[in-house]
Specification:
This protein is mostly helical. The chain is built from three helices and two strands, in the order ββααα.
């Protein structure tokens, strides 16, 4: 999605506006990149820190498994306590 001034908004968690047009122009002018190279490099830089790796996803899966397991243990404990109180 493009916003004013040619900046590109990357709709990800915690995303911030990133001016890919400005970066592409800088690459063309200062590093003598072709227009295609500059645009491709600008987009790669914009997404570099925002993409989850397989390791990130594996860590997230592990953390979610532990949290869900903990909630299950608590739920079973609460149900057991309620059954003892009622019965």
């Amino acid at each position: 999605m493009e916003i004013s001034g040619g900046a590109t908004y990357i709709p990800l968690m915690g995303a911030i506006p990133f001016d890919t047009l400005k970066l592409a122009r800088t690459l063309r002018e200062k590093a003598h990149f072709t227009a295609e190279q500059a645009e491709a490099d600008a987009l790669a830089d914009a997404f570099q820190d925002r993409v989850a790796t397989k390791d990130d996803l594996a860590l997230l899966e592990q953390r979610l498994t532990i949290k869900i397991g903990g909630m299950l243990v608590v739920a079973v404990g609460v149900l057991t306590a309620l059954l003892k109180l009622i019965g």
